[in-house]
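notes to self, project folder thing:

trying the whole complex as one job this time. last attempt i did each chain seperately and stitching them together was a nightmare. two parts in total, labels are on each line so i dont mix them up again. if this works i'll redo the older ones the same way
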Amino acid sequence: MAKEKKLVEAITSMDEDFAQWYTDIVKKAELSDYSSVKGCMIIKPAGYAIWENIQKELDRRFKETGVENVYMPMFIPESLLEKEKDHVEGFAPEVAWVTQGGLEPLQEKLCVRPTSETLFCDFYANLIQSYRDLPKVYNQWCSVVRWEKTTRPFLRSREFLWQEGHTAHATAAEAEERTIQMLNVYADFCEEVLAIPVIKGRKTDKEKFAGAEATYTIESLMHDGKALQSGTSHNFGDGFARAFNIQYTDKDNKLQYVHQTSWGMTTRMIGAIIMVHGDNSGLVLPPRIAPTQVMIIPIQQRKEGVLEKAFELKEVLSDYRVKVDDSDKSPGWKFSEQEMRGIPLRVEIGPKDMEAGQAVVVRRDTGEKYTVALSELKERVGELLDEIHAHMLEKARAHRDSHTYEARTYDEFKEIIDTKPGFVKAMWCGDQACEDKIKEDTTATSRCIPFVQEKLSDKCVCCGRPAKSMVYWGKAY
Amino acid sequence: MAKEKKLVEAITSMDEDFAQWYTDIVKKAELSDYSSVKGCMIIKPAGYAIWENIQKELDRRFKETGVENVYMPMFIPESLLEKEKDHVEGFAPEVAWVTQGGLEPLQEKLCVRPTSETLFCDFYANLIQSYRDLPKVYNQWCSVVRWEKTTRPFLRSREFLWQEGHTAHATAAEAEERTIQMLNVYADFCEEVLAIPVIKGRKTDKEKFAGAEATYTIESLMHDGKALQSGTSHNFGDGFARAFNIQYTDKDNKLQYVHQTSWGMTTRMIGAIIMVHGDNSGLVLPPRIAPTQVMIIPIQQRKEGVLEKAFELKEVLSDYRVKVDDSDKSPGWKFSEQEMRGIPLRVEIGPKDMEAGQAVVVRRDTGEKYTVALSELKERVGELLDEIHAHMLEKARAHRDSHTYEARTYDEFKEIIDTKPGFVKAMWCGDQACEDKIKEDTTATSRCIPFVQEKLSDKCVCCGRPAKSMVYWGKAY
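result (full assembly):
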């Protein structure tokens, strides 16, 4: 048992030091590793397999709404980045610059894309001539670079993987519709696949994307009570179209500017999965995203017939993503590993089970054990994977709801932020001065103006002037 | 008919100007576009969908051999790139350098990866301790950058997409086995999916990868008689392991160097598909890679029931990748478009067909028309897609074989290279001086020393000294 203990003891308790617990899981579940390039991470097989499943699920949902994938260059000439004023101000301070190609200095420096609005706009300006060319609903899967000062695996790194959708439409209404449509795709994906409940809303002007008319966001709450912006969808109106001169002739042969959107989700969702679902035994993966959903662990595997039976069960369970751990480690060690890696179900099969025609099935999320007749194993595993998903979503929702507070006075607000990690709902006058003051006083930021509004009072929680809307506030990653 | 003619006439004939024909297809089939970044292309939806299918097919084959996907940083610190001498000499002259991150100059410049051997070695040096950690069989899908002077869409661009596999093994024999295994995966993929026959062989020392002990290649022949290197697999021996100090303790507790391989295939295969299969009506896509395999084109679509029937047939054919062109263009225009885009089958359905309970099915590769009873449509389409694949592969093989020549004297060699585009098989002494002379005299290069050797004569075709092996020579992209 000494070895098993060592494996488990190597994780810091999440209540003791949440940041260290996070780092321990990233390392022990072999999700990512540090590289020789400061601030850039290596995504290891266990981490990348999660990303592949995220891609598969999201991409399918995108394509159902008419999205087409493309690939744009990774470099942006300085003059192109500078075309939209707000955008360049937002991004120029944090880009990496290529100044030399081969043995020659470049005539114009190129930045490594931090996001690709400018490239898509430049492309669309050539591509779009007539109303017949609209809409364009393009997306790309790629990596982007932002020269962050402090970094953490998955949550904030100098290079990360994402998808960025960029669309062009004939009318403002169509652009707004697409912006909301994609926000809903993200929200549904988070709940239905990652078992992460989200708050949908609009960002304040202070927090919106550089160059956007409106930014919509989904916000989720981590186990430590900090918020994570989990996906954003931007409506650009015709701002970029005017800067890049993207015009089309409408049915009446008049020149019109297009209306644009963009929307993205990143590898930071792997961080969200860790911080929403993980526990002190390691990662807990939602079944629909888990690269391995079921780990079969043979007990006394050297006894005759045990390994054969384990592989037979693998066949029986082949509708699911299933593996057999036939390594020469002890069962206890294998249990710890399966728990650390967050595999939703473990099936134990040994000589006694075989004799009784059954297997022991253990849930990763609750630790519950079930004795299941082998004849019912396939069906039961399917049911349990669905139950686990529902339970994880419910648990995360209950945690979020029990960590969502209401503040009606500024004293109350400050006390909650100070003592109770979570979201705080409070009224806001709409003035950025109050937002700035709240951030300065408490380090909390406005997470979003939720679509579902409540009227907690008539007055701004900060200045007492008439309130315009209710805002979710919180400390964030 | 005027419009249809215009569409078709816009392509240059391949016999008149092959390079212009290629560029025309890339543009008219909407595969890629030029960008504002010199030498970097935009891959448009029709091109990217081909790449997605290449990825899906290759990735599945990789995983069947135990490959796991990872993601490494896109940057390589200069000091890391310099660790293996041959490697840095091969790549340093053609990399892009990042010298500034955010507002600060970097302390050490970073190159944008031209290939990731050095990053994987650095990773493996930390990851691999014991024989239990071996083998490591990792791959990544990403983009790489090489600062080429002259570029052409898909064939040679400053940034391109690829996969790069990097493996580490306990023994030299295992590394060699993996190198050949992956070459075979590529060869099978080319024949079974892209309908492109390939020659498997080893590169000469002059042509091998910078830092490799041996480079294996698959070479294919384009319609104009030029060769295209279509995939390579490298055995590094322990060269990189020694440079990066990648050691493991074996079962006898002794320190050993690992043996490594790498292997890659790129978006240039889209260029190969164009140049092997295309014709004067446009692209011809092999059915197994075609994003759309069947285009249903309604005739007199405003007549009652025609569009409904077209969409009903779409349901019938839903085992295949099928679309209905219900745009308001004329049928003739739609035919030209389907041909230009290389969609393998077209199904025409109009009022007369409906009355007769049949549809007209037209093959893109041969132009053959079939009248097919609707009750047999599904089965017939499946058969035809298989027949098209087999026919395209056979046709490409026949073209290659009829453009493969043998030369026994240097005069003969030079005359063939000069007058007959294609491969030339000729004996070689093994001396690089002869390879250099042949290249200087004829611009032809050694494509590979094929695994299937023939003894055409005893003497080197160039110098007349005793021959060591038969080599495929040719002008190449």
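what i see at first glance: The two ends of chain B are 38 Å apart (CA to CA).
need to look closer tmrw
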